[in-house]
Amino acid sequence: MTEARHEVGSQVGRSLPRIEARTKVTGRAEYTHTMQLAGMLHAKLFRSTVAHGRIKSIDTSAAQRMPGVHRVITSRDIRRVIPEPYYGPAFHDQPILAIDKVHYVGEPVAAVLAADPHVAEAAAALIVAEYDELPAVFDEIEAAKNKVLVHDELRPAGTFADLKHLKGRKGTNTALDFKLRRGDVEHAFTTAARVFEHTFRTQKVLHAALEPFASIADYRDSGVTIISASQGPSFVRTEIARLLGWPENRVRIKVPYLGGGFGGKLYIKLEAIATALSMIVRRPVKVALTMEEQFYTITKHPSTFRIKTGVDKSGRITGRKCEVYWNGGAYADIGPRVTQKSGFTASGPYDIDNVWIDSYALYTNLPPAGALRGFGIPQLVWAYERHTDIMARELRLDPLEFRRRNILREGRPQATGTIARDIKLEAALDRVAARLRWNEALERGAGPLRRGRGLAIAMKAVISPTTSVANVNIAADGSIILSCGTVDMGQGSDTAMTQIVGEVLNVPAESVRVTPRDTDITPYDMGTLGSRSLFHMGHAVRLAAEEAREKLKALAREVGEPEGSNAPISDLFRKKYGMQAGNIIGTGTYKPDYVPPDPASGATPNATPFWMCAAAGAEVEVDTETGAVRVIRLVNVVDCGRPLNPKIVETQISGAALMQLGFTMFEKMQIDGGQVTNASLADYKIPGMLDVPRGMESEAVAAHQSNGPYGAKGVGETATFCVSPAIGNAIEDACGVRLTELPLNAEAVLRALRSGTDQPLGDAP
Amino acid sequence: MSRRTIAFELNGESVTAEIETHHNLVEVLQRDFNLTGARESCGQGMCGCCTVLVNGTAVSGCLYLAAFVDGAQVRTVESLADGDTLSPVQEAFIEAGAFQCGYCTPGFLLMATQLLDENPDPDDDAIRHYLSGNLCRCAAYPEIINAVKIAARKRKGATAPA
């Protein structure tokens, strides 16, 4: 892959409107949640009401008697068709329906099938289950003590080398412990001028994609077809084939547009139960969740982060120790990968010689946690950038200057030892500082309204190693179809991929059609996750288009066209086949190099093919009488290499930042004894129009990712990283309160303002 | 459960449907008329994804019983375009890049259309308040505000300045 081949033409770099735009504004875009098959039954789930318990009995008789109910299913029925019905990407720990035990409130225990979904729902409410309740553990620090065990025995999937040693392990809630050891951190602390230590926490929040989870399975003896709102059809196919003991070619996964994903619709979710139910009743079965049920399906990891840093007299960070505890809930999902991959950068985007990182994935009796737009990074950045700011204040250093003194620069080793390349981190920080006019004094406000500002920076290693494959098919009339497994869930990937095809084959991107995702047609892709698609699939698509281009040239030579001829493609086919016939297929496969971290030290010379860099700045106004915080300005600057579609990049930056604004300011799953008590959009607020700051600024710094397709790299998550600490730092700047836990709602601010005064607030009821 | 037949005007056409009285408008539109632009999301009238106009007024179709539209005029997002010609609001949403996943878009389009019918020249505050009952998890809000302004200019017949 030489740079010279990446010539910039007319298609890459255009702000082309989304290619599916007309379909979406006419209401004709298809989503699994609104789809139906002839003869289909609807399934509604009966869920556990206890956090941890042995199932004594499940009485389904009243439900079964309700007119219109087709059948009621429990794990006993499931095991007749799938003897080992456990699934998951990292651990095979999650049963299709609870077996013997329940592990969290909301876990599916039984399913009711009916032609009318309202009948199924009403019948599910008639099911009665009795449990022998067991002690439960909800907090990640408590879980690490292993006093209450969520699972009797660990069941790693065998997919990941660093999990194999956990097979069959008993007596632990730890589903992965990642270690990184660099230099001598204890020596650094003893010789430091100052040592700072803080603990930060983040809360449990929800993806809340507006299209709730949905899967439809149609099982036949010859094979099963599953229509699903999935971010990773290839993985779903592999996992369903494993559960059924079938070859992959008997499992077909079709994915229409997704009504949002954000990491929630990754790996395997409802596909397993939809398949099992269809297998039992031999009819198509749709499982479509309500918004409430999403709260019991997959969430974002709460975390506790203990961070300790030594600083020398010149304000240089000499050592940093990080202990991160990830609350993974009752099933591992992809938590162990979050734990390891985010562990690479837990010490932050700083140049530190001595680093110690321990990162633990923990089981608890809460709804499972997985990937949510950042793969753990936003939780880490909240901690290390609040910590950085607090240190700067204690050291009486300007927060911008303190960061500049320690920032990781191009060509320097990151904590894993991998040399940082193509990181426009400082440039992003400089742009934020310039936009905020950091070198000028801020108007501080008057009376009870106090203003402040804050900064944050972050970087993330894209998850590696992962593979993407693409096919480009040129028809005899010269029109082009692209098949690739990247799922367009709103991020605009279809548009970017057609721009790459158009660039290589010198045609307008609008003329390229993308096939709907269908694993019978679409080649393998690891998944639409972790901002990997534009880079990995972008390369695969480029390679596929280049192969097609070479085959076209060969065809031209074969039919006697002179070199450089611009004869229409259709003429070449006509000359070769005597009529409009035939086609040309180019295939591209891309997998970057990667060296797994050494298990003892976490060191690797090649942790990732690219780094995502972000900086953010916030200006806030705090009402010191009520604790209410108004975000006046929110500036997000990212390094995403070269934007292939500048307009879509801009909307990815602002959309990610606004999503994280919700996670920062108010979103929180309230949990009482394991029960989510605000599982609805009436009680769990997500950002709306009125929450958008008046000053909302988004920018991509001028950059070129040298190993990226046309200089590009991913951007879907980048603008989530820094929002929380930028605002937390601005609140401290405004009114001096030192918040360490999200969300930063009025109650938290007011409690902090009043603590230590003669008017402290009482405990929450 | 009781079945009944309802007759109503759907996007300008007289139609009938056999429904159960507990069925809501969204599911009848999807199941009997293959109109999937109005979609259930929150199920509580909080998000606006299921917005449908009944006798010219926006309702939450997931909470609105289908039986209530007997004799009424119902308009859905599918009626906004005239054949291949998009409405000014639809065009403006494309130009402004005012959606990502598109799931909430029909609700925003209908509400923005209703806003411009009532107030042909809304300012930022008017747009924010009028559309505050619609949620977009992709948070395309800045682009939606811009789209409504572009649509206002288009509807006035003025050319949108660059």
Structure, described:
The complex is a heterodimer of chains A (765) and B (162). With 765 residues, chain A is an alpha+beta fold. Chain A folds into three domains: 135 residues, Aldehyde oxidase/xanthine dehydrogenase, molybdopterin binding domain (Aldehyde Oxidoreductase, domain 4, 2-Layer Sandwich); 181 residues, Alpha-Beta Complex (Aldehyde Oxidoreductase, domain 3); 322 residues, 2-Layer Sandwich (Aldehyde Oxidoreductase, domain 4), CATH 3.30.365.10. Helices cover 26% and strands 24% of the residues of chain A. Chain A is built from 19 helices and 30 strands. In chain A, strand 21 and strand 22 form a beta hairpin. In chain A, helix 14 packs parallel to helix 15 and helix 15 crosses helix 16. Chain A is globular and about 85 Å long. The N terminus of chain A is likely disordered. Chain B is of the alpha+beta class and 162 residues long. In chain B, 33% of the residues lie in helices and 17% in strands. Chain B has five helices and five strands. In chain B, helix 2 packs across helix 5. Chain B is globular, with a radius of gyration of 16 Å. The N and C termini of chain B lie far apart (57 Å). Classes of the chains: A alpha+beta (765), B alpha+beta (162). At the A-B interface, helix 1, helix 4 and helix 17 of A face helix 1, helix 2, helix 3, helix 4 and helix 5 of B.
Which key phrases capture this entry?
heterodimer; A: 765 residues; alpha+beta; Aldehyde Oxidoreductase, domain 4; Aldehyde Oxidoreductase, domain 3; 3 domains; five-stranded mixed sheet; globular; B: 162 residues; 5 strands; 17% strand
User: At the third CATH level, what is the topology name of the largest domain in chain A?
Assistant: Aldehyde Oxidoreductase, domain 4
CATH class of the largest domain in chain A: Alpha Beta
Oligomer: heterodimer
Structural class estimated from helices and strands of chain A? alpha+beta
Mean pLDDT of chain B: 95
Number of separate strands of chain B: 5
CATH architecture of the largest domain in chain A: 2-Layer Sandwich
Strand line-up of the largest beta sheet of chain B: 2-1-5-3-4
What are the secondary-structure elements of chain B, in order, as H or E? EEHEEEHHHH
Largest protein interface, residues of each chain: A-B, 60 and 58 residues
What's the average pLDDT of chain A? 96
